[in-house]
Write a structure and sequence with these properties.
Helix content: 25-40%
Distance between the termini: 5 Å
Number of helices: 14
Strand content: 25-35%
Number of strands: 24
Shape: elongated
Radius of gyration: 22 Å
Structural class: alpha/beta
Largest sheet: 4 strands, mixed
């Protein structure tokens, strides 16, 4: 497996282009199952998770072309991909595919809406928490879907189609909101979804579905109203900028010091995280072309954060912010409320000299004067990039192992950082 080597101590200066959002691209790709016309998605990032989902969709009969070609050779920052599901050839999503990618479970919504049936493997647990599918199942049942679980598979049937109804999520879930919204677009009547996720990725999906002929209102708020239509058509839609990548590089600049322009992104996607960065001592300013981040070498101030659903502080930036706080001038507290097991990066940050104590879902971070490079191990996607952020300010060399986690969610990370003056290189196995 590849590794990434970082030599700390260099400030970051220059321009970093922000890629399309993985968390937006995946549900948009799955929406291609909803129509037999072509769905064209612009600004799709080149990531391992995107490539895996292309293979999963192919299992159901979705064909694709990239920038007009069947296979993509261009490793650029932005791609246009055309997805066409003229015929659904298989309504089963097998374990060997779903187990590799949790988001592939979301195909249950489009398949049940378009085909009236779906057999989808339970995704099981993952490194950062169990993330049960109860919310998906209960929501679909509220719309008349018959569901039983047998042999590790969710067997879903809606012989009379998706019916009108209302469902209130007992807990906010982005994935379950995606699934219920997609299924409801072809309902016989109006569906109300309450306590829905408000994340920008949900609103982005709704805009795409509306362009395909759906009638969705309220996306981006806790109540989404979907007036069912008979069918959807093709459309052309742009994937929104990646707010997690934006926040990650903003924190990297705050950690290493320097002056960087984050291009092709929007401050409105992560105001809470940017406010937290300002409180820590970074200069953050929105511009017409993106976000300007600067820190002139002054010390970092400790800041307490609690993760919350949008518009709160994102759980997907918790590990990165913890890395930043390891060098703050004082003690900060970071509380994780979304996933029950998302502190596995703490032990690896400690290998770099961080002083972090855990108590339940709260991490107490006491800032240290200096981090020192070491061999570290990535445990999940966001944890892996937190180690890169810490290494940028560490003395000496750090080697991050298991970087396939990084490839799942960060497009050409080493190249983007190197262009801004960091010493970062990939070591191929």
């Amino acid at each position: 497996m590849d590794r990434i080597r970082i030599v700390g101590g260099e400030s970051l200066n220059g321009v970093i282009p922000i890629s399309g959002a993985k968390n937006a691209a995946l549900p948009l790709m799955i929406a291609s199952l909803m129509t037999d016309d072509t769905l064209t998605l612009e600004n799709v990032p080149h990531l391992a998770d995107v490539e895996q989902l292309i293979r999963i969709l192919g299992n159901h009969g979705v064909d694709y072309s990239v920038n007009g070609r069947r296979q993509a050779q261009d490793r650029g920052y932005s791609r246009t991909i055309h997805f066409t599901a003229r015929e659904i050839v298989d309504t089963t999503a097998p374990y060997e595919l779903v187990s590799k990618m949790r988001a592939s479970f979301w195909v249950i919504g489009p398949l049940i809406a378009r085909m009236g049936e779906a057999r989808v493997s339970l995704p099981g647990g993952c490194a950062i928490g169990t993330r049960p599918v109860d919310l998906f199942i209960d929501g679909l049942k509220a719309l008349g879907v018959e569901i039983d679980i047998d042999g590790g598979y969710v067997n879903a049937r809606a012989p009379k189609g998706i019916r009108a109804g209302s469902y209130t999520f007992p807990k906010v879930s982005v994935g379950a909101t995606h699934v219920l919204m997609m299924a409801a677009t072809l309902a016989d009547g109006t569906v109300e979804i309450h306590n829905a996720a408000c994340e920008p990725e949900v609103e982005n999906l709704a805009k795409c579905l509306n362009a395909m002929g759906a009638r969705i209102s309220g996306a981006g708020s806790p109540t989404i109203i979907v007036e069912g239509v008979g069918s959807l058509t093709g459309a052309r839609h742009r994937v929104l900028p990646d707010r997690i990548e934006t926040g990650t590089y903003a924190m990297a600049v705050a950690m290493a010091g320097g002056d960087v322009m984050l291009e092709d992104t929007s401050a409105s996607l992560l105001e809470s995280a940017l406010d937290t960065l300002r409180a820590a001592g970074a200069e953050v300013n929105a511009t017409n072309s993106g976000i300007h981040v600067r820190r002139n070498g002054a010390g970092l101030e400790p800041v307490d954060v609690t993760t919350d659903p949008f518009p709160g502080f994102p759980t997907d930036l918790q590990a990165q912010f913890m890395a930043l706080m390891t060098k703050a001038k004082g003690t900060s507290h970071i509380t994780e409320t979304i996933f029950e097991n998302r502190f596995m990066h703490v032990q690896e940050l400690a290998r770099l000299g961080a002083d972090i104590a855990l108590s339940g879902q709260t991490a107490t971070v006491r800032g240290v004067d200096q981090l020192k490079g070491a061999q570290v191990m990535a445990t999940d996607l966001r944890a892996s990039v937190s180690l890169v952020i810490a290494a940028l300010a560490a003395e000496g060399e750090t080697v991050v192992n298991r970087v396939y986690h990084l490839d799942r969610g960060f497009e050409r990370l080493e190249e983007k950082l190197t262009r801004c003056g960091a010493t970062v290189e990939r070591l191929s196995s």
